Amino acid sequence: VCLLCGGTTTLLYPSNVDEGTPLESREIACTSPYLSIHDDIFHCRRCRLARAVPPVNMDDLGDLYRGVEDPQYLASEKERRAEFRRFLDRIEGHDFVECPGSLLEIGSSAGLFLHEASKRGWDALGIEPSRWAAKNGRQLGLDVFNGVLDEFDANGRRFDVVASWDVWEHLKDPNAALRRAYDLVKPGGLFIFTTVNMGGLGARIFRGRWPWFMRMHLHYFTPKSLRALVERAGFQVLSTSTVPKILKLRYVFDRTRQFLGPFARFASWSAARLGLMERSVHVNLGDILLLEARKVL
Length: 297
Description:
The protein is of the alpha/beta class and 297 residues long. 32% of the residues lie in helices and 24% in strands.
């Protein structure tokens, strides 16, 4: 049953992994190269929300996230920080947001966004399940709760901004998580996040071979279905848009090597010969949705 509209879901893309294949921790790292590898994916014809069959018991999946280590994530640290500064500019561009105020990041990874926010004077706090990533954030002097959203006790605290980058596709129950996020935003505050966009050009071109189909992703959204979910939680949606990923070319080739095969190896060799591997590139096929919403007063 579709968790958005209650309609019946049907199989859209069958699994391309052998039945019973275990999920490994390296498959759930942010920089996982296991693109276009997925379990059965179902979708609702009525509202277009799609979901995957969880590859393992959800408790086991939580343990995998806690244990994952991903030093490759920092290979594009400069580019990621630049992207996060642009997100901060966008946050601070809203006249109703107190700047700098209090900020909570759900899924803070290695702490780069929190660090950029802290440098601007934000009172920033992160929630991060990976022990490795939470430790990295703390080494930057950040306040990071090592756990998941359900385990986080805010002690009645509310935040001017709740932000999250590339997290919601991983969640078993986005409805419950959105209601929790709503509770954590101050009245009149901002909720801003990114997630995968199944309604974009990339998904239409690649179909069942879309790179963002990955075993760690449990839900896939379109702008319409995402907006409906967020509004159901009580938020007033301000905008939905697509945003690029800004990464080192070397990182892009490393991550797509398994997906593109010999072409990626040839392109990587050519870029290395031309001295382009450290060049920053914008990657945008409409695959990443940015949603901004306000908690109504």
